[in-house]
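A sample copied in:

***
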Amino acid sequence: MKGIELPINVIIIVVLALIVLLAIVALFFGIWPSGRDTVSIEAAKSNACQILIGMGCEGSTESIPTTGFDVGSDDDTPGGTDNNNLQGLCETYYGIEDGEEEDCKRIVCRCEPLV
């Protein structure tokens, strides 16, 4: 009686199926990074820009908080700088120069200046 022989194609398909299965399990258990920071940045930008647009694009970008998102490099000590606002987000993640509020409004939130 001969042993059971599997064609090479079946072995390759089984190996590929196992690799795909392991990749799916790795995604569900968080072994691979999910890009949560990017989503958080976009969500914080979207929320802050909605507030700004709701104010007719006339508000100060420093007065609009990035609720639930830590812009980073902030110093919550007394007398320190807390940049968890739209202006800090613009400067830290979108390359807007320090204090360029109108650029932040125009480039990041797409607010056009009134003529």
Q: What stands out?
A: Residues 8-28 form the longest helix (21 residues). The chain has four helices and no strands. The radius of gyration is 25 Å.
